Amino acid sequence: MNGGECPVTIPVGETRLSGDLCLPEGATGLVVFAHGSGSSRLSTRNRRVAAGLRQARLGTLLFDLLTSSEESIDNITAELRFNIPFLGERLVSVTDWLGTRTETRGLSLGYFGASTGAAAALVAAAQRPERVAAVVSRGGRPDLAAEYLGKMAAPTLLIVGGDDTEVIRLNEIAMEQLHVEKELAIVPGATHLFEEPGKLDEVQRLAGKWFVKYLTANPG
């Protein structure tokens, strides 16, 4: 794969999910992205963060949590985007699939979750404590995974925009429920999507530092 992006099809039961897997030469870990509601593996924000992580010799997997037909239904009903147990199970299945592949099964895994995808990442990490070495949440909704927070084993970084006041409150509550190494990083002047100049770069820097520290320290 020598650093290039490789489209993959991920089997989840009878379902097939589309993904983009990229492993830089000498990758020291692999970060799996879980996008937020209404988004996909093509999220420009997640892809920018992923590109920065690859500069730090971390592999990345961006994939669609929903199939195209599921997405079409969800665009009308919104019945799946907030179904956190369902999305968490999807992420668990993708994690198990990575464990079957020669090029990825030896790599320590991290999750990067955005918005509702962060809740799915927390659910999946709690169910695969032996496999997931670190979690980073960007503008996440950990309250949607409240019953799993006390079961977490992976060091967890919660990144929130300084102007995203309600989400800050929800993340502060989650911090009290997490019993692992944890940190709440508030990016001054950033709103929920970190669209302000330089704010997503700060997310990338914080996430990269966290993943390099914990994925390198916990080889697969």
Describe this structure as you would to a colleague:
The protein contains 7 helices and 8 strands. It has an 8-stranded mixed sheet with strand order 1-2-4-3-5-6-7-8, with helices on both faces. Helix 1 packs across helix 7 (199-217). It has a single domain (5-217), classed as Rossmann fold. The chain is α/β, with parallel strands linked by helices and 220 residues long. The protein starts with a strand and ends with a helix. Strand 6, helix 5 (146-149) and strand 7 (156-161) form a beta-alpha-beta unit.
Descriptive keywords:
8-stranded mixed sheet; Rossmann fold; 7 helices; alpha/beta
* Average residue-wise pLDDT: 92
Q: How many domain units?
A: 1
Structural class: alpha/beta
Please give the CATH class: Alpha Beta
Give the SSE order as H and E letters.
EEEHEHHEHEHEHEH
The name CATH uses for the topology is Rossmann fold
Percent of residues in beta strands: 15-25%
Q: Specify the number of helices.
A: 7
Measured between the Cα atoms of the first and last residue, the distance is 19 Å
Q: How many strands appear in the DSSP assignment?
A: 8
CATH architecture: 3-Layer(aba) Sandwich
Walk across the major sheet and give the strand order.
Answer: 1-2-4-3-5-6-7-8
Helix content: 25-40%
